[in-house]
Amino acid sequence: ALKDSAKFPVGVALNVGNELGDLADIQESAALIHQQFNSIVAENGMKMRFLHPAINTYDFAAADALVSYARGHGMMMHGHTLIWHHDSQLPDWMKTYQGDWQAMLRDHVQQICRHFAGKLKSWDVVNEAIDNKLPDQYRATLFLDKLGPAYIEQAFIAAHEADPTAVLYYNDFGMEAKAEKLQFMLDMVDDFQRRQIPLHGIGFQMHVSIDSPNIAQIKSALQAVAARGLQVRISEMDVRLNQKQKAATLNPALAQQQKARYREIVSAYLQSVPPAQRGGITFWGLLDKDSWLVESKPYPDWPLLFDDQGQAKPAFWGVLEGL
Ligand code: XIL
């Protein structure tokens, strides 16, 4: 099993939470989850919209159920995510909020961190704050607009105050693909370290395709973060196969390429990140049919380790070989 081969957390994202369905929806896959993984992330259920639906209302019921499910099965949980600009995950009330933004965001971060203190080992504090098209600047979000880049460090400081033992991550995609984006993130890290802002790790989402970014880029990105003494997670891994070619089936050749790709990235992680800095690897879904990539694209894809029946794909064996 994956969790027995790895000496670090091996996780899966599960899409349960308020409005998203409940634990009954994962019963069918429960045996597979317990057998292979020792860590869980809520794919959506701990995002701003779901935990903080109205200005003075926090709704922890569904997230708490997931936390106790994880505990009951000896799995740890990583929190995702305290601050994320994405329109679909932002509470509607926040989009038109007119009050004191710094106080409001601080309260948001601290209410949530305090609630889960001692239950979640780590948090993605800020997600995707660096622009992807202009990767030498912060992303133009509601938060940047209201508070300038300071909202990022303020979130880390607030989270650390509320839960001093939580390991606090900055999480983003494409930092292994774009040199300028990587450099911008590293500059932020160096600045935070100089000023003792409590940032403890970097999450690389690792939504990749078969051939891009290349493995040398991935390794040097992981190494650059490891060299700064931070924790490193691969936080949302999947390997999409179907770009624009609109293949209708997962043929054996593609499945083997995917296996090799999973293996090379997992072993790059082991080669690049010293054991004490391995925050773990999380896969962004369990079965291919559950993948966000499948839901959001007009053509099929098979990005994950298990097929729709829960059978291990070559990709699964690639990860196991890489570990
Ligand atoms: C995605 C979920 O998988 C989808 O179900 C949802 O509709 C949108 O968000 N980067 C992230 C994740 O940090 O939170 C995103 O998850 C995928 C991209």
Task: Describe what you observe in this structure.
Belongs to the glycosyl hydrolase 10 (cellulase F) family. Its EC number is 3.2.1.8. With 323 residues, the chain is an alpha/beta fold. It has 13 helices and 9 strands. The protein has helices at 2-5, 30-36, 48-51, 61-72, 92-95, 101-116, 142-147, 150-162, 179-194, 215-226, 252-272, 292-296, 314-322, and strands at residues 10-14, 39-42, 76-84, 122-127, 167-172, 201-204, 207-209, 231-240, 278-283. Strands 1-2-3-4-5-6-8-9 form an 8-stranded parallel barrel, surrounded by 5 helices. It is globular and about 55 Å long. It starts with a helix and ends with a helix. The model has no long low-confidence stretch (mean pLDDT 95).
CATH architectural designation: Alpha-Beta Barrel
Low-confidence stretches: none
Percent in helix: 25-40%
Instruction: Tell me the major beta sheet.
Output: 8 strands, parallel, barrel
Distance between termini?
Answer: 11 Å
